[in-house]
Write a structure and sequence with these properties.
- By secondary structure, this protein is α+β, with helices and mostly antiparallel strands.
- It contains 12 helices and 12 strands.
- It has helices at residues 2-24, 29-33, 48-54, 56-61, 69-78, 82-85, 108-116, 184-189, 194-203, 231-254, 264-268, 288-295, and strands spanning 42-46, 86-94, 97-104, 121-123, 126-130, 137-144, 147-153, 178-183, 208-216, 219-227, 272-276, 279-286.
- It has a 12-stranded antiparallel beta sheet.
- A hairpin with a 2-residue loop joins strand 9 and strand 10.
- The chain is globular, with a radius of gyration of 23 Å.
Length: 300
């Protein structure tokens, strides 16, 4: 009898130890993405810590003194400031809902108190509160050590959609600190200016499209990877993208304009494209001035 009781005690201890070990581990970048809904979703990843260490975060975020007063109040009440507390953000946008897996440092008690003082409720380590957008709710819960799951959706318990899972097709993670993977159908439906649309519409013929932003030998660059069903479709896509670039250059010449590297005219006309079997790769160099204009809201 004593041996049976001891065996049961050891089993319980082992299970408890495994659970404590598992919950104490955080999630890596791939696991953050694989915690989000997959079907028909646009996925975004931001290596916030990498941007912070490179100085790009301050460039894109602007002056701390110029932050919106409402955001400053949120930081004071919730204890969460993306500038210092977030290390990585994985997001999925699907059917008007937003799902986030955030890695960083979180003051759970402050976050829970913030929800409760703004018309929300907390139970079983899950909180929800009304969003500023009518009919939507913000819900959040701790997912793993240093990982917070958050949803902005029409379901007040939308955060229940977030959790580590096996995707039908595991995500490919670009090396760049910022990237976005877009379903091809979303590119054909995008409501954008005619110039930008001329580049994005051809990409709707691809099966997978990923945009990534990172450093380059002379500043920064945008890189696109488009995977097509066949090499023939990839070849056609490469020709269409190159033709759109040439057309934009000719339009600027006709209007007696010079491409400006600090705005979209300079970025789009500098694009180059190549094909390798079913994959098309495009790159657009970006100068620091373009990022400064983008952060300052001078690029629409």
């Amino acid at each position: 009898m004593r041996k049976t009781a001891l065996a049961l005690l050891l089993l319980v201890a082992a299970i408890g130890g495994f659970y404590a070990w598992r919950t104490s581990r955080t999630l890596n970048d791939r696991q953050l993405i694989q915690s989000l809904p997959q079907a028909r979703a646009t996925h975004v990843f931001i290596d916030v810590d990498g941007l912070r260490r490179s100085g790009l975060l301050d460039l894109l975020a602007g002056s701390k003194s110029a932050e919106d007063p409402e955001y400053k109040t949120f930081v004071q009440e919730s204890g969460l400031d993306y500038r210092t507390d977030l290390d990585a953000v994985a997001a999925a946008f699907a059917e008007g809902n937003t799902y986030l897996a955030l890695r960083g440092r979180f003051a759970w008690k402050k976050l829970a108190a913030y929800a409760q003082t703004h018309g929300g409720k907390c139970a079983n380590a899950t909180c929800f509160m009304p969003a500023t957008r009518s009919g939507y709710f913000i819900s959040f819960a701790p997912l793993r050590a240093r990982v917070l799951a958050m949803a902005v959706s029409t379901d007040e318990h939308g955060v229940s959609m977030i959790g580590l899972q096996d995707w039908r097709k595991p995500p490919r993670l670009p090396a760049e600190p910022v990237w976005i993977s877009v379903p091809s159908f979303a590119l054909s439906d995008a409501n954008l200016g005619s110039g930008t649309h001329a580049f994005l519409e051809p990409l709707s013929q691809a099966q997978e499209v990923t945009f990534a932003v990172g450093s380059a030998p002379k500043g920064f660059q945008i890189r696109v990877e488009a995977v097509c069903a066949t090499p023939e479709i990839a070849e056609l896509l490469t020709r269409r993208l190159s033709a759109s670039t040439d057309l934009l250059r000719k339009m600027l010449v006709r209007e007696k304009m010079t491409p400006n590297p600090n705005d979209l005219s300079g970025v789009l006309t500098a694009g180059t494209f190549s094909q390798q079997r079913e994959q098309v790769t495009g790159t657009w160099p970006i100068e620091r001035g373009f990022l400064e204009s983008l952060a300052g809201g001078r690029i629409q």
